[in-house]
Amino acid sequence: MAEIIGIGIAVGIAYWVYKDANERGSSHAALWAIGVALFLIVILPLYFICRPKKRTNISETGFSVGNSSDEMNLLSTEYTYCPECGRHHDSHQRFCGYCGYDFSRK
Q1: pLDDT at 84 over 90
Q2: Which residues pair with 95 in a beta bridge?
């Protein structure tokens, strides 16, 4: 009975890791989940160390988004994270160093 409970806990945590990794834009969410399910004690701490930062929506930053193209350009140039892969980038970069996203696109 204890084995079944342990497996259930590992599967539940693996499912949470999969959902969390997807929300954070990780392209390896399934691999993280499988690793956690199989090697919970080793992989879960690694996931917490290596996981990408959580994406934030522009609406969560406190900026109001109107229909003005100037306002949209201002907001689009202040990205902290790549809108394609969710990775952190410096504001002076034109392309994402991870996925190649062109920040000048609208």
Answers
A1: no
A2: 102
Q: Which residues contact 52 (CB under 8 A, 6 or more apart)?
A: 24, 25, 26, 86, 87, 88
Scan for tokens 């996203």, then name that residue.
Answer: 101
**pLDDT tens track for 23-38:** 888 888 899 999 999 9
* Torsions phi, psi for 75 (to 5 deg): -70, -40
Highest average pLDDT, of 18-22, 48-52, 87-91, comes from 18-22
Sole residue written with tokens 């999969």: 18
Contact present, 17 and 32 (Cβ < 8 Å): yes
pTM exceeds 0.85? no
Coil/strand/helix, residue 16: helix
What 3-state class would DSSP assign to 89? coil
